[in-house]
Write a structure and sequence with these properties.
The protein is an alpha+beta fold and 361 residues long. The protein contains 13 helices and 15 strands. The strands form 3 sheets. The protein has a 5-stranded mixed β-sheet with strand order 2-1-3-15-14. Strands 4-13-12-10-11 form a 5-stranded mixed β-sheet. Strands 5-6-7-8-9 form a 5-stranded antiparallel β-sheet, with no helix packed on it. β5 and β6 form a beta hairpin. The protein is globular.
C-alpha cells in the first residue's frame, strides 16, 4: 500500500508514514540490542535517534496540518446523519465526499478520488443553474441514471451537446411539457427505451431515493471553480468564471454596510469601497430571519451586494451568479419550496435542503 503513494496517488502516504515510523523504531531497537556485541553502537544509535528527531521536530514546529473539515461543517454532516433517511443521497461538493460518508453515513455523488471532469460538471450543475426546477429534477435524474444514463441519452440524441441540451430542456420543463420536447427530438431507440413514454419515465424515474442538497461555507470560497464547471459548454470547451468575493463579519449601521477588507457600502448611493477599490453596485439585498429587503440603484453596474444579516455574512458578486440556485439558497433563503424544503439552516456554516423533483402523473 505504501508503494502506491509513488505509483498511484499521494493519499497513500497515509500508509507510507507508519511504515517509516515503525520501521525506523524497530531498526533502532534491533541495533540497540546488539550494542554489547559491537560497542560503537552505544554512540551510533543515539546519534541516529537525534538525526531522525531533529528534522521531525523542526518540520512540525514550522508546519501545522489542521483538519480539512471545520467543526461547524462537521456539525452539518451530523445533522444529515440524524435528519435524513438511511438510504438518502447527500449532494455536496467533492471536497466533502469522504467526510460525509464517514460523519453522515450517507451516499454521495462525488469525492476526492473520483472527481473526474465530467462527474464534476454534473455535480456543479444544481449549484450553478438559475432554475430550481431543473436543479431538483437533474439531481433525482442523475442519482437514478448516473453517468451511464447520460451517455446513453447522448448516443440516442446523436451527439453529446445535443443530448445534454435535450436533458436540460426536458428536466427544466417538467413531465407534461417534456413529453412534447421528447417527441420533437426523435430519439433513436435505446435498449428498452423506444416510446415517448419510455423516455419520459427515463427522465422522471418513478422509483427514486431521497436526495438532499448540502450547501456550506466552502462554496463561496471556490465559486470560480464550481460555477465554471456548472456552466460548462461542451462545444466551446469552457464555462463562465464569475466574480464573487465574500466578507465576514459584516454589519449594518445607519446607511452603511461595513466589514472586513475595508468594506464600506453606502446604501443611499450604491457606492462601494472594498479592498482599496471604489466601484458601484446595481442592487443590494439584505436577508434577515423574516424578510428579504432589496434596493436597486439603476446605475448599470454588473455587480450587486448581498448579505445575510444574522450570520454577519456578505458577498459582492456579478449579477449572473446572484441568480444561481446556490446564492438564492445560501444568502437569500428564497427557495421554490415545491422543489427545495429546508431541513436545517445554519448560515453561513451550512444548510441542508430536502430536494423534491417532479413526478410522472
Amino acid at each position: 500500500l505504501a508503494v502506491l503513494a509513488f505509483t498511484y496517488a499521494n493519499r497513500f502516504l497515509i500508509f507510507f508514514i507508519p511504515l517509516l515510523a515503525l520501521g525506523a523504531g524497530y531498526t533502532l531497537s534491533f541495533l540497540w540490542s546488539l550494542r554489547q556485541r559491537f560497542i560503537p553502537l552505544y554512540i551510533i544509535v543515539p546519534i541516529l535517534l537525534v538525526f531522525m528527531l531533529v528534522p521531525l521536530i523542526t518540520e512540525n514546529s514550522q508546519s501545522v496540518q489542521w483538519p480539512k473539515e471545520s467543526p461547524s461543517i462537521v456539525a452539518g454532516m451530523d445533522v444529515a446523519l440524524h435528519k435524513t433517511p438511511s438510504d438518502a443521497v447527500i449532494w455536496a461538493w467533492w471536497d466533502h465526499g469522504y467526510a460525509l460518508t464517514y460523519f453522515a453515513r450517507r451516499a454521495t455523488v462525488n469525492d476526492g478520488s473520483i472527481h473526474s471532469g465530467e462527474r464534476t460538471v454534473y455535480t456543479a450543475i444544481p449549484y450553478a443553474t438559475d432554475s430550481f426546477r431543473y436543479a431538483a429534477n437533474f439531481m433525482h435524474f442523475y442519482v437514478k441514471r448516473g453517468m451511464p444514463g447520460i451517455s446513453m441519452l447522448c448516443t440516442a440524441a446523436g451527439s453529446r451537446s445535443a443530448g445534454l441540451q435535450l436533458m436540460k430542456n426536458v428536466l427544466s420543463a417538467g413531465p407534461e411539457a417534456g413529453r412534447d420536447i421528447i417527441e420533437q427530438a426523435q430519439l433513436k431507440p435505446s435498449e428498452k427505451l423506444a416510446t415517448t413514454g419510455d423516455w419520459l419515465a427515463f427522465f422522471f424515474p418513478p422509483e427514486r431515493r431521497p436526495v438532499y442538497l448540502f450547501v456550506d461555507s466552502l462554496l463561496p470560497k471556490i465559486t470560480y471553480w464550481w460555477y465554471w464547471f456548472g456552466t460548462w459548454d461542451v462545444t466551446k470547451r469552457d464555462g463562465d468564471h464569475p466574480f464573487y468575493t465574500s466578507s465576514s463579519p459584516v454589519r449594518i449601521k445607519d446607511n452603511r454596510i461595513t466589514g472586513a477588507n475595508g468594506l464600506n457600502l453606502n446604501m443611499d448611493t450604491g457606492e462601494l469601497l472594498f479592498n482599496d477599490k471604489r466601484t458601484a453596485v446595481a442592487a443590494v439585498a439584505i436577508r434577515d430571519l423574516n424578510n428579504l429587503r432589496e434596493k436597486n440603484f439603476y446605475n448599470g453596474s454588473r455587480y450587486r451586494f448581498e448579505m445575510f444579516e444574522q450570520g454577519r455574512f456578505g458577498a459582492m458578486m456579478e449579477n449572473s451568479i446572484a441568480e444561481s440556485v446556490f446564492n438564492k439558497l445560501y444568502i437569500r433563503h428564497t427557495p421554490d419550496r415545491h422543489y427545495f424544503k429546508p431541513v436545517e439552516l445554519s448560515t453561513p456554516a451550512y444548510q441542508l435542503w430536502e430536494v423534491t423533483g417532479d413526478s410522472l402523473p
